[in-house]
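Morning!

As promised:
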Amino acid sequence: MNEPIELQELTSGGVTSAAGFKAGGIHSGFRRDPKRFDLALIEADDVCCAAGTFTQNAFCAAPVIVSRHHLNDRGSGKVRAVVINSGIANAATGEKGLTAAQRTTSIAADIIGCTDDEVLVASTGVIGKFLPLDPFEEGLPALHSSISSSEQGGHDAAHAIMTTDTFAKEYAVSWTSHDPAYEGTTFTVGGMVKGSGMIMPNMATMIAVLTTDAPLSECAAHRALSASVAQSFNRVTVDSDTSTNDTCILLASGAAAPKASSIDVSGCAFDECMAAIKRVCIHLARCIARDGEGSTKLITVTVNGAADDVDANRAARAIANSPLVKTAVFGHDANWGRIAAALGKSGASFDQGNVSIDMMGIPVCRNGLAVTFDEDKALKQFEEPEITIDADLGAGSSSTTMWTCDLSHDYIRINGDYRS
Amino acid sequence: MNEPIELQELTSGGVTSAAGFKAGGIHSGFRRDPKRFDLALIEADDVCCAAGTFTQNAFCAAPVIVSRHHLNDRGSGKVRAVVINSGIANAATGEKGLTAAQRTTSIAADIIGCTDDEVLVASTGVIGKFLPLDPFEEGLPALHSSISSSEQGGHDAAHAIMTTDTFAKEYAVSWTSHDPAYEGTTFTVGGMVKGSGMIMPNMATMIAVLTTDAPLSECAAHRALSASVAQSFNRVTVDSDTSTNDTCILLASGAAAPKASSIDVSGCAFDECMAAIKRVCIHLARCIARDGEGSTKLITVTVNGAADDVDANRAARAIANSPLVKTAVFGHDANWGRIAAALGKSGASFDQGNVSIDMMGIPVCRNGLAVTFDEDKALKQFEEPEITIDADLGAGSSSTTMWTCDLSHDYIRINGDYRS
């Protein structure tokens, strides 16, 4: 690895920050409320190298099947545009749903002037309900003529994919390449995401679109996206449920270096792109956890000293998914016993006499035993918007980080009252 | 298998219903509130064949280590008494905690007149806090002299082990044996349990004690208990957390047939005992789910048509642990999409086009597609205290049942406010 590049965060950056992309969002009739946008279009000026990762849920939705197929069922391909609707997930809709998703790509392709398989689709919303085509037929021509490469275009798209999200989630970084082949070129990676549960159907699917003007090859885009998703979106858990519709797409226009050769999976420029994509994904993933349904706190769980990566993951996931840990944080209670018990049931191997736990940097458990700590200091630190939990298993040298949120009354209100 | 026996439910039955046992409960100082019992003793008139199953949690508590050892680390042995305290879990207490648990057995053994290893111990309460011995030294002599074989003795013991439980959980059945070797003998199995989260430390451990006057051998007691626990307590989930202290003990006095030979692992009498123990365990397990922290509904999840038992278990567990399914039930929302998504992420193999789902007997999904149903009828059925969810994966012939409860505001209140 060469010297680390310096990534510059772009103020108000998003999916249109990288050169070569336009975006927009409108209300098109998937939702009843005419004030809520429900249709987003992200369009590249030319066909792009693209990569995608999709839900592993066996009950996956029709748009996932269609988009996966358009990426040649290997996670990468050539793409011109992404069409996303909110309000209806087009999941559990059988053959009729598949036809609707395919028709959506045809409608968009006709308007844009590309082939059907150069269009990807994603949907989020109520499942088991059929997706109407009228809002695409009527809305897409207007949306297509109004999309722009401005920040506003990105913002509108980010708003159009929101469901129970309380804020739009966008981010972008740029950097000047140190790679001799691209010396002095400024590249940008931007993106948007929706999701406020990791979760699940009704309206809490995760959908992310990332764009870059670096000339990543198909293979490099896929490699960079997969590695970044594994360390970001796949490390967020709000309530342990995964969606039928989760989709993450990366489009690489190459517009920042149109005459340069494409970036393949090795070399300095690839490393730079990886770092930038990972940064954007982690930022957006943390936004999801912070906006977890009913969340009042972002919780960062770090496990060190695990015997191997599998154990590190098991241990971190057990803590991050524990309703008892999450309610304790909501209740401002440094109840590390619940963290210990989550570790104990995780399946990770360790000796309880070697376990250490810190909450918000305060040692609360050493060698499996309680440590006396200043409860007032702990209570004060619980006022912070971010809470850290660090557990060391004393069993090896593997570590990992996960993000989650606390479990509050509002989670129950949001998910108990959802459809009614 | 012989003709099925008829099990008679005993009104106000519990841990003293079977012949040969005394029990009681008192306040002894583990808790601050002098009105709350916190020490229980279950004592057999003579030494019994006994079996035990314990938490798999790697952070297991000191009393679990000691009791497991007294059952020869193979889950069965000879036992005279069980001592249980609530208020302090004696978990995450290291060597000092182990010594305290061992001392507890010595104190009890001295008073009762048996050996230390004929006493089992269990604790439930706050973890990371050391267990004082004074309440045993001062309380056990008084408790020992007040225990009785009356219903009241059983009730007092059942109350003394409660933590966040909102009601004491006891049950007993009796039957007249059809086995020629015990013809006409009436046997009884009774029991008590505490637990109102499956869950975890502070105070939601599951502790169960079962007693029977059938002359089960050690091996038969172990076999019957293990099989019954697998189909009852291990099929309850309140919040997916498992405790550091979970303990389930069966004592078999043989007092109903003192001169008969012992019942081994085959034959009609064993089958009868198995059926009775299983019935008591399932009843008590359903009580835990019904009393799940903040619960307003008992939810019975049945999965049919799974490819194998592992898949059936995965699928049922995914539904029963899904916060989105549980909040939907709390919100009286027949949101089967959340059930479908839970199935999809479970890892069970199936084709979504073969899946059927019923809620409260109402078909809501057939062949993976929505079925139109009477929403008013569904809303009305949500008023019932028990809600059934039935999913058929259409992938084989394995099935299983699990019990859970809904997820309400009160769960957050109970667990968010617990220690403060």
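Chain B touches chain A through 70 residues (CB under 8 Å).

Hope this helps with the figure draft.
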